[in-house]
Design brief:
With about 130 residues, the protein is mainly β. The protein has a single domain, classed as Quinohemoprotein amine dehydrogenase alpha subunit, domain 2 (Lipocalin). The chain is globular, with a radius of gyration of 14 Å.
């Protein structure tokens, strides 16, 4: 992955890693409770495979069942949700690249895995609620 794409992928992943799939709950007809994971989260991303930069830390904000960008940065778009039990799925898009993060939040922390759309890089993430 070239030096221009690397920061993009990790900006995507940072935000990406603070959200989750609510689809399974919606399919069951249960609405995700609002506010269980609300707040500002600090997300640390570590590359375990591939030529992406080794680590990053980014902010993300959760409101209800949605994950939002916590910084004013229009260079990427974040799509994600958090399920009732803390399951997470986030897709982050920047240009023609995207990354997929999955995992679980519990209380004030969380962890999971991520990978780029083409599989060039993958790794782990951790998150801590800041406020």
């Amino acid at each position: 992955m070239n030096n221009v794409v690397r920061p993009m992928v990790f900006a995507m992943l940072a935000a990406l890693l603070a959200a989750a799939p609510a689809a399974s709950h919606a399919a069951q007809g249960a609405a995700a409770p609002r506010g269980n994971f609300d707040g500002l989260w600090s997300v640390s991303i570590t590359t375990l495979q591939g030529s992406c930069d080794p680590s990053y830390r980014y902010p993300a904000r959760i409101i209800g069942s949605k994950v939002l960008q916590a910084a004013d940065d229009n260079s990427y778009q974040l799509y994600g949700a958090i399920g009732r039990t803390g399951s997470i799925r986030v897709i982050v898009v920047r240009g023609s690249q995207w990354a997929d993060g999955r995992g679980r939040l519990s209380g004030n922390s969380g962890q999971g895995q991520w990978r780029t759309s083409g599989g060039e890089c993958s790794g782990s993430w951790t998150a801590v609620r800041r406020g």
